[in-house]
Amino acid sequence: MQRRSFLKNTGLTLGALAFLNADTLAQFLADPAFKIRMLTDNIGIFTEKGGTILFMLTKEGTVVVDSQFPDSAAHLIDEIKKKTDKPFRLLINTHHHGDHTSGNIAFKGLAQHVLAHENSKKNQQEVAVKNKTEDKQLYPNQIFGWVWCEKIGRQDICLRYFGPGHTNGDAFVHFKKANIVHAGDLVFNRRHPFVDRSAGANISSWITVLEKATSTFKARTTYISGHSGEGYDVVLTKADVLAFRDYLSNVLKYTGEQIKAGKTLDEIVKNTKEIPGSPEWKGDGIDRPLKAAYEELTLSINN
Questions:
Q1: Which of 34, 82, 87, 43 is nearest to 65 (CA)?
Q2: Residue-wise DSSP of 207-225
Q3: 121-127-128 Cα angle (round to 5)
Q4: Mean pLDDT of the region 136-164
Q5: How far is CA 209 from each of CA 27, 162, 164, 232, rounded to the nearest angstrom?
Q6: CA 43 to CA 165: how far, in whole Å?
Q7: Do residues 256 and 299 lie in contact, with contact meaning Cβ atoms separated by under 8 Å?
C-alpha cells in the first residue's frame, strides 16, 4: 500500500504518526474497522460505530469525549494504551444516548472521573431502569449545570449548556487552546437528526442553542459533530453549524405551512422527500424531524 493511500484510508495526519510505533502502524495498515484521525499533535477523533469520539493525550492523563459502544470503546482504549502509559483522567459524555454512553462501561476502573450535564445523567439512569440495563452502565460521577471548566495539561476544557436541543442535557465540549468544540448530537452534518422529545428535545430552542454557541466560540472554531451524512465529514466549520441551524428552521417553517394547509402528520411524512431550503440533508430518517416538529407545533397551537 502506498503512503498516500495509507493516509487517505486511515484518516491519519502526519502529526498522528509521531504517536505510532512499528507494531501499531502495521495494525493500521491492516485497515481496521475503526479510524483515528489526529487534529493536532495530541487531540484526535475516533470513528467506528455510534457517535464520534474525541480524545486528548496529556502528561496528566487522557481525556475522552463520548464512548460509543463497549466493543468499539475497547478498541479506542487499546490504541490509546499503545500511545501513552498515562491514566484516563476524564471521560466526558456530551449527552445520554446509548451510541455515546454504552461504551462507558469499558472505562470502568480506568477513568478517574465521568462527567456530563445533570440532565444527561438523569436521562441515562431513567433509560437504563426502563430497559433493565443498569448493570451495563457507568454513570457520571461528576455533573454540571451551565458551565464547567478545568485545566488539564495545557488545555482549558470547558463544558457549556445553552438549553434544550437534541435532548435537555446536551453539552458543548470546548478545548480552548486548540479551539476545538465537540458538539455531540447538537449538530448532524447533512444527515436528518434524531429529535428526542422524550428527553426534552425542542427544535425551536435547538436553533437558539446553535446561535448561542456560534456567538460564544470563535469564528474559526473547529466543530466535531456526532454524526454526518454519507460523503460528509464530522469535522465542521461555523458555516456548517449555521447551515444545520437553517435546516432546523426550514423543518419548522415547512411543517408549520403543512399544518396550516390542513395536512396530517402521515400526509406530511408520506409526501416529503426533502426539506425545502435544505436539499443537502438527504437519506433515511426525514420522518424523525418532521414528526418532532409536528408534535412541537401542534402542542404549541393547542396550548
A1: 43
A2: HHHHHHHHHHS-TT-EEEE
A3: 90
A4: 98
A5: 41, 5, 7, 23
A6: 26
A7: no
CB 268 within 8 A of CB 291: no
Please tell me the distance from the alpha carbon of residue 86 to that of residue 76, in angstroms, as a whole number. Answer: 14
φ/ψ of 181, rounded to 5, equals: -125, 120
- Model confidence at 302, pLDDT cuts 50, 70, 90, reads low
d(C-alpha 300, C-alpha 193), whole Å: 21
Q: How far apart are CA 83 and CA 169, in angstroms?
A: 32
Question: Which residue in 128, 210, 127 sits closest to 170, CA to CA?
Answer: 210
Rounded average pLDDT over 1-7: 33
Look up residue 180 and give its amino acid.
I
Of the candidates 231, 157, 160, the residue with the CA atom closest to the CA atom of residue 191: 231
Pull the grid cell for residue 123: 436521562
Strands 180-189 and 172-175: antiparallel
Which bin fits 213, alpha (ψ -120 to 50), beta or left (φ > 0)? alpha
